[in-house]
Amino acid sequence: MPDKPAAEVSIDATLIRRLLAAQAADTIPDAGDLPLRKVAEGWDSEVWRLGTQHAVRLPRRAMAAPLVLHEQAVLPGVATRLAPLSVRVPAPLVAGVASSGYPWAWSVVPWIDGMSALDQSPAERGVWAGTLARALMALHTDAPVDHPVNPFRGVPLAARADAVEERLQSLRGGLLDDESADALHAVWRAGLRAEPWDHGPVWIHGDLHPGNLVANEGALAGIIDFGDVTAGDPAYDLAVAWLAFDPAGRERFIAATGARYDAGTWVRARAWAAAVVLILLAHSDDNPAYFALGRDAATEVVAKA
After folding, report:
1. Is the model's pTM score more than 0.70?
2. 105/64 Cα distance (integer angstroms)
């Protein structure tokens, strides 16, 4: 059965044109004349491409509405830190507010040219593994005390133990055979035993996987969808080493971080990757690409390398 929640508001071109006319005219004077088409619809938001240089990002349900506010507050600083690496993020050009019959905040952001890394092979992604590692080190800086709080991302692994155990048991004997389930469980338990993060919270993306990475001409062009941005243990983001890369790419990714993260952080990162695999397998009935990502990443998580 479908996993994606139903939209709670109807979003169409007419609505977006009204929002742009009311709030974006000063920033994008020709917005009313630019082509507009829907290009993506996730669990939380829709993205409409506006001309060739911009996109409009709008929540599709109330639960996601605060996430846009988090992006509007945090992404300008992230964009500055990642600029020297030529890695772009969708820092809002227009921080829209509720109006014209639309109930929540929304944004106009830069369009980042390229393809979803979900459409690349792990070997192709490995070419830019070092760039992603350096981008995460630039992102993972100390966060202020008033950072957005996410109860599921960047928290101690023990806080998610019950949910992980429940998913594991529900998948065992079905999508996961006993050997695979046992191997993933062992990786998760190793993370629980690892030394916890004992520093102050650092900024983390909070939903880092190939679907939120943009590649262009063999390079990492952008990191998108910061709706879950929060602060905490960077191991949550570093799980991408197993979600995105094969052993060779993962080795380049980890090597590029140097001594920035200790051994315990990598053990926790691998455990988070196991947890994300279970989420992808359990909740991607209506998204074959993400189900395939979960299946392939499961192999990487339990691999010896």
Report:
1. yes
2. 10
